[in-house]
Amino acid sequence: MPFITAQQIHNGHRWLPQNTVIEVADNGTIIALHDNLQSDDVIDYDGILAPAFINAHCHLELSHMKGVIPEHTGLIPFLKVIPLHRNDFTEEQKKAARHAGYDELVKNGVIAVGDIANTTDALELRDLDKMHFYTFVESLGFTATNAPKMFAYATGVYDAYAAQATGDKILKQAIVPHAPYSVSSALFRLIDQHQDSTVISIHNQESREEDKYYIAKEGTVKELLTTLGIDDAPFVPSGKSSLRTYLEWMSSAHPFMFIHNTYTQLQDIQFAHSMLKEVYWCLCPNANKYIENALPDVDMFIRENAKLCIGTDSLASNHELSIASELTTLKNNFPHLEWETLLTWATYNGACALQMQGVIGSIQPGLKPGIIQIERLEQNAPTVQRII
Prior knowledge:
The protein has about 400 residues and is an alpha/beta fold. It has 2 domains: about 1-50 and about 360-388, Roll (Urease, subunit C, domain 1); about 55-360, TIM Barrel. It contains 14 helices and 14 strands. The protein has a 6-stranded mixed beta sheet, with no helix packed on it. The chain has helices spanning about 75-85, 90-105, 125, 145-160, 185-195, 210-215, 220-225, 240-245, 265-275, 285-290, 300-305, 325-335, 340-345, 350-355, and strands at about 5-10, 20-25, 30-35, 40-50, 55-60, 110-115, 130-140, 170-175, 200-205, 255-260, 280-285, 310, 370-375, 385.
């Protein structure tokens, strides 16, 4: 049974007292935390020990699109490019890229991922033994008459994931809406009724254009729908933001995870907190900068006691799949944020957002969180390696 310690230990919630020693079973389960244990068996690591990271939002099936789309195009031009080039690759190239993306997550200290799926391509990744998965099967369709057909397709993909044997890993799945500009009210309601306990993950207010469309049916979202051959004539603008519109089509029984939130406003946060029982806001700062060259108002979320977690988005919108890099971007842009807080977002909060906090996300007896060593954190250039 190994005993490990470091200059600092973050348990997923806060810094532990100095001289804390973690006792870990051979299978990675935390046995106990000891105060100032004196033993020749204690391994003393440089830097920081923390629970392994949780990447709450990723698109592993888009890994083959790394470098295909230039930076700072804005969301709507970015979305126009994806379907044009998504299939400009062989199946072998796509598979190799997915596996490389998976390996990159593992190398960068990730133990669980909230993975977006439009296909069954990631089934083979979930069979590997290094990470837990919550697979969010996206359903898309902005035309109400197509809602049953589009939902039936998503259900088929969901069923394939649900049939997969879990083994020693956590494997969860849910059908979720892609984004407000790609899902009709009829499809929102079908998704809502599928399973009332699953997490609803949704790309939220990643562009100013999203709210423009919902408020007045103006802006480049309308151009995107036209480009995709979608007749938006039946859509009636609500005069409200997208979030304050679509939440009225959903049940509060679901835990929610809002993704990106680059242009989310105070009234949106307050509305979500008043409507829903459990809410997490996932930040993907490097992808936000890659696409829109903008970041969410993080301080506003903190003032509203929002529960924040961290994702990377895809390699189509990011240079790497590194939670440490995402945290560094936040620290560089919001220097007053404490590393103690940032590490909580990347560990315990992410585990809670994926409903996995009973196994991972914090260093406490009985859990099996994985443990990472982080060095050079105070230099804002962290390096990470998984040690357990």
